[in-house]
Design a protein that fits this description.
The two termini are 33 Å apart. This protein has 125 residues and is mostly helical.
Length: 125
């Protein structure tokens, strides 16, 4: 077994085992609904958003990074919240641009075993 293996939770393992009783499916559905409700409540105050996704591999000196920063600032100036995946590259540029003009911005980052870290410019997510 490799060192970077991430153990799955019991819920994930049970889900992957296949069909269950209707009662178990109902309990699972309740859990999914609760997770969805948490997400909706977390993002409730974001207001109207424009989502920007892009490559995580562009650095600050790349022309596309600069375009992403400009775009994030312009979106924020229009009164929209800039929402990204919260990673580096284009997403970082858009969050940075929005922040530079005092706009609202959000990063919805996930944790993956081999992926980048969250960028430092988004406010909450």
């Amino acid at each position: 077994m490799e060192e970077h293996f991430i153990a799955k939770s019991n819920k994930e393992i049970e889900f992957l085992e296949g069909p269950r009783s209707r009662w178990q499916e109902l309990i699972y559905l309740k859990d999914v609904f609760c997770d969805l409700l948490k997400g909706i409540r977390k993002l409730h105050f974001c207001g109207p958003c424009v989502t920007v996704f892009g490559s995580a591999r562009f650095k600050e000196d790349h022309e596309y990074y600069k375009v992403g920063e400009y775009l994030g600032a312009e979106i924020a100036k229009l009164g929209f919240t800039v929402m990204t995946g919260g990673g580096p590259g284009i997403m970082e540029a858009a969050n940075k641009g929005a922040r530079s003009v005092g706009g609202k911005n959000v990063g919805c980052n996930i944790i993956l075993p081999f992926e980048q870290k969250a960028n430092p410019f988004w406010i909450f997510g």
